[in-house]
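Sync notes, pocket subgroup
Present: LS, DG
LS reminded everyone that the earlier model was apo-only. Rerun requested with 2'-O-acetyl adenosine-5-diphosphoribose included. Inputs:
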Amino acid sequence: MSSHPSLVILTGAGISAESGLATFRGAEGLWEGHRVQDVATPEGFEHNPGLVHRFYNQRRAALSAVQPNAGHEALVRLEKSWPVEFLLITQNVDDLHERAGSRKLRHMHGELLRTLCIACGESSPWQGGMGPDSFCPQCMKKGKLRPDIVWFGEMPYFMDEIFAALNRCDIFIAVGTSGHVYPAAGFVRTANARGARTIEVNLADTAASESFDERRTGPVTQVLPALVNELLPRRIWSRFSD
Ligand code: OAD
């Protein structure tokens, strides 16, 4: 490992759980009684856009009632102190990482606070409710907006940049993700192939646990700040070994 290790972090719904946002595969999973096919696929949207808009409008509205937690804040501390390569990849569509202060952040599954116009192809910031009668802020066409969320069967965003970062990372950390959804679930194997140190932070073992060198088990708000404290002194010491 170089004296300025490159760090890639992947987060999932578990990092926002203690802020009050439901995870996908927990007992009261985020699909809220809907079938995934109905609310998280292009076909579901085509079949019933009103239902899909209502589902994401509720989730967008819920953002104003939650705050970033100590896990989000620990990652900001890490980003600010890390000397060179740092990339935070999130599967989450909430805005808690940016509200905490993360900047080197990529939302690979899109964002609740953006809309995508099917007519002009542009993505734009969006607040409040969206529906079949909404106008695109860019091309002004009516009825062509969808939530800018990557649905099942669609290609996640930033894949080239993410795989380039994974292929040169020295440390890869996956936080609060169940390891069920690809391509994110396979990132640890790319990092392993590159020879990176791989660490999983989760409440419990996951479908991907066996691929990690180390596991830190417990709630994100406790385990992640402790891990960040462990990593930062290493970084500071390494500056003196140059
Ligand atoms: P999941 O709901 O599948 O998994 C959440 C993970 O977080 C589980 O492994 C939990 O054990 C863990 N967890 C929950 N609370 C925690 C806490 N307080 N501290 C630590 N760990 C905790 O969510 P994701 O893995 O993010 O995609 O799901 C991946 C993708 O599946 C989502 O981005 C979404 C979904 O389909 C799309 O919508 C495209």
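DG: The first helix runs from residue 14 to 17.
LS: The two ends are 13 Å apart (CA to CA).
Action: DG to write up.
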